[in-house]
C-alpha cells in the first residue's frame, strides 16, 4: 500500500531552501519517492483546523520506505538545512 509524506512548509530563507530541495529530491527518489506536488498553487477551500503555507506530497511504495527516507543517514544533514531555514509540519499517511 502506498504511503504519502505530506509537508507544509513556511520558508524563511529561499536561497538556502533551494539547496535543500536540490539535495532532498534524489534522496527521496532513492527510497522510491515520487513527488506528486511540490509547492504549487493552492486553492484552500476550507481552513477550520489549519491554514497551509506550501504543500509538498511525496508518494512512497509504503510506510517503511517513507520512514527509511526520513531516518536515513544520507538525509540527516539535508534535513538540518530544512530545519535551519524553514518551519514545517510533516506527516506520513497510508494510501488506499
Structure, explained:
The protein is 38% helix and 30% strand. It is of the alpha+beta class. A four-stranded antiparallel β-sheet has the order 2-3-1-4. The chain starts with a strand and ends with a strand. The mean pLDDT is 97.
Report the CATH C-level class. Answer: Alpha Beta
Radius of gyration: 13 Å
Strand order of the largest sheet: 2-3-1-4
Mean of residue pLDDT? 97
- Judged by helices, strands and strand pairing, the structural class is alpha+beta
The helix content, as a percent range, equals 25-40%
* Shape descriptor: globular
Essential attributes:
Alpha-Beta Plaits, 96 residues, 3 helices, alpha+beta
Write the layout of secondary structure elements.
Elements: E1 3-11, H1 14-30, E2 34-38, E3 55-60, H2 63-71, H3 76-85, E4 86-94
Antiparallel strand pairs: 1-3, 1-4, 2-3
Brief digest:
This protein is α+β, with helices and mostly antiparallel strands and 96 residues long.
